[in-house]
Amino acid sequence: MSTENNKALKILMLHGYTQSGPRFHDKTRALEKALIKAFPSSTLHYPTGPLPLRPADIPGFVPSTQGNGNEEETDSFAWWRRQSGDSPLYTGMDKGLETIAESIRQEGPFDGAIGFSQGGAATAIVASLLELGRRQAFDTAYNKDPQKFKYPSSFVNDDGEAIQPPLKFAIVYSGFAAPFELYSAFYEPKLTTPVLHFLGSLDTLVDETRGRLLIESCENGAQRVVTHPGGHFLPSQKVWLDAAIGFVKECVNGAATKKATQEEGVEEMDVPF
Q1: Can 20 be counted among the known catalytic residues?
Q2: Other CB atoms within 10 Å distance of the CB of residue 198
Q3: Considering the entire predicted model, what is its pTM?
Q4: In the annotation, is 117 catalytic?
Q5: Mean pLDDT over residues 254-267, rounded?
Q6: Nearest Cα residue to 53 out of 86, 29, 20, 31
Q7: Over the stretch 33-70, which tens digit does the pLDDT of each residue have?
Q8: Which of 83, 84, 117, 233 is most buried, most CB within 10 Å of its CB?
Q9: Which one of 15, 203, 217, 228 is the catalytic residue?
Q10: Which of 117, 128, 184, 217 is catalytic?
Q11: Which of 25, 57, 232, 236 is catalytic?
Q12: How many helices and strands in the chain, by DSSP H and E?
């Protein structure tokens, strides 16, 4: 067996909206086990988003008839929040990215990142920020329109370089793209980091249109798409785990960017890749 496939990896794990690092860890035990089996001595790191959520911030919240439920503490966190109404602006994104950057400084550098839902969106954003030339793309976009999001200073070292080299891979479960008007530099030019996207055919929280906006923001040769017949969750059956592990193996061996995009249901795919 190739020793490259046994290389220990460091992987950044980014939870979804209303979750936390420990809760996401609990939900990814099967994936963690599969990754460590394929890459012995690998470590997965689970930071928690910096923005605590009130009960009213959580989808499906029903106010209590006794007291003010908005003041109750929860074990739910976010990397950012979307402003109310029709605004495409995210609040707290700088703080969320600063928390991720601190994790990279303390526990990285990371070989790859895996995220779910809002954490999937954040995973693509982190991959983008670490790509060569991305800071210049942000500067160009900001110079044309000062309303656009600036490259986060937390991702820059004292020498002016990114805080770590580009990721070798990213896996996005039920992810989506940030609104393009203000955050275009994350996606233009398109991401070149190899990204595996998992979409749930029955996902009602992140619909296919939002997911495909992110997929279309990745270079064709650097993306893969797998559709599972479920909803808004991280699938843990063997076929989906094999797809993820196969993708990571290709990426750490430098093969992922050489294959054409495969966008089809798993029933039509030969997985692992």
Answers
A1: no
A2: 26
A3: 0.87
A4: yes
A5: 42
A6: 20
A7: 999 999 999 999 999 999 999 887 766 555 555 555 55
A8: 117
A9: 203
A10: 117
A11: 232
A12: 8, 11
